Amino acid sequence: MAQDNYIVIKNTEAAITNMLKSPNSVGTSTLQSEINSINNKIGKEQLETSSSTIIGAINEIKNSGGGSGGGSVSVVDNLNSYSSYSALSANQGRILNVKSQELSNQIGNLTNLKTEVKTNVVNAINEIVNSGGSGDLSEVNNRLSTLEEAVFPFKINSFSLGAATTQLFGSQINSPSFSFSFSETPKSITLKVGENTEESISATAKTYTSNNSIISPVFDTNSTSKSIECKLTAISSKGSTVTKTISVVFTFYVYSYAGTETYEESKIKGILKSSKKGTYNVTGDSTNTYIWMGFPVSYGEPTFNIGGFEGGFILGASTNIDVNGISIPYKFYRSNTPQASASKSTEITVS
Questions:
Q1: Which pLDDT value is given to residue 10?
Q2: Whether the Cβ atoms of residue 186 and residue 235 lie closer than 8 Å to each other
Q3: Are 178 and 208 within 8 A, CB to CB?
Q4: Exposure string for 192-205, b = 16+ CB within 10 A, e = fewer
Q5: pLDDT-based confidence at 182, cuts 50/70/90?
Q6: Percent of the chain residues past pLDDT 90, beyond the cut
Q7: pLDDT at residue 196 above 50?
Q8: Other C-beta atoms within 10 Å of 182: how many?
Q9: Cα–Cα separations (whole angstroms), residue 100 to 18, 33, 129, 136
């Protein structure tokens, strides 16, 4: 269709030129007005698109997302003004009007342009080209990008600390090391340990050793547990931000052991727990030994259950245990009767 438009324009120009060379009865001012109107609409260029009109062709480019929409431009000569020639005949004038209307139909109605500029075809094209092709195609790309992120979201696959995430109150982890992986190579990575300044990490890194220690929060006799957060933040190439956090919990020991009727501090064995609740297994070091369990006073009074029966323990001792320079009050509970033996483990549930 673009080639047909080209032929119509060139043929019209030739017809007008021939008619202008024969003196007849139509005034040159009418001719000049027609030529000027056509020239203003054409704007020197014609698009090679699938549309049947130039305006439609421009809108085709606009709807396809701009200058890269698939249309191309062919140069067409302006219709020349021959105002120095004599007037046309009435028949030649009629032919001129018909040809002018045909050409106008080929160009289309300028008011139908979807550009801001609606006075000139070339200026409309320039507007699209100068926009960098950021029309509807950009919106399509944005939607595709959004869909891609929804189906294949950028995420942190793993994030781990090279040390236990439960620590005793008053301790610290110096130069903590971290490992991490992502669904795709991120644009940037940062790590924040506690309240320390955020650290930048190479986007291709898989591990990192922080310059900031993970230090125990302040604690006292009323404490049960406190935590320090280590936060990893990554930004994808598309600008999506994801985070993952590791909480390092600082707490006290819960103690247990099997022994005689009398509390023996030298035998106590502890596990770090932020609560008294849980299931514990105690194995005696000989036959007919008592089970002892000790909790910080701040954890509250425990309830014991052995073999489905509640109770079976009494308060056997109250003492203080040094926790990194702080004296923490503990209560130790003893089974009423010998429960543990060297041959089997006894399970105790505490709530």
A1: 47
A2: yes
A3: yes
A4: bbeebeeeebeeee
A5: very high
A6: 52
A7: yes
A8: 20
A9: 15, 11, 29, 34
Cα 198 from Cα 196, distance rounded (Å):
6
What is the SS3 assignment for 168? strand
- 146, amino acid identity: T
What token pair was written down for 152?
């294949």
Sequence-ordered list of residues with C-beta below 8 angstroms from that of 5, at least 6 positions apart, any chain:
46, 54, 106
CA distance between the termini of the chain: 85
191 conformational bin, left if phi > 0, alpha if psi -120 to 50, beta if neither? beta
Percent of the residues in the chain that have a pLDDT greater than 70, as a whole number: 63
DSSP string, 30-71: HHHHHHHHHHHHHTTEEEESSSSSHHHHHHHHHHTTSTTSS-
SS3 content of the chain, % helix, strand, coil (to 5): 30, 35, 35
In angstroms, rounded to a whole number, what is the distance separating the alpha carbons of residues 230 and 245?
A: 6
Query: What is the arithmetic mean of pLDDT over 189-208?
Result: 98
Could you tell me which of 351, 347, 256 has the C-alpha nearest to residue 307?
347
Structure tokens at 251: 């707490």
Q: What is the pLDDT averaged over residues 51-74?
A: 54
Answer for the pair 65, 136: CB distance below 8 angstroms, yes or no: yes
Residue 58: CB atoms within 10 A of its CB come to 27
**Angle between helices 2-20 and 28-42 in degrees, nearest 10:** 160
Q: Which is nearest to 213 in space by CA: 231, 232, 228, 224?
A: 228
214 closest CA partner among 252, 254, 161, 255: 161
pLDDT at 111: 78
Sign of the CA dihedral running 26, 28, 29, 35? positive
Domains in the chain, start-ordered, CATH in brackets?
Answer: 2-143 (no CATH), 156-250 (2.60.40), 252-350 (no CATH)
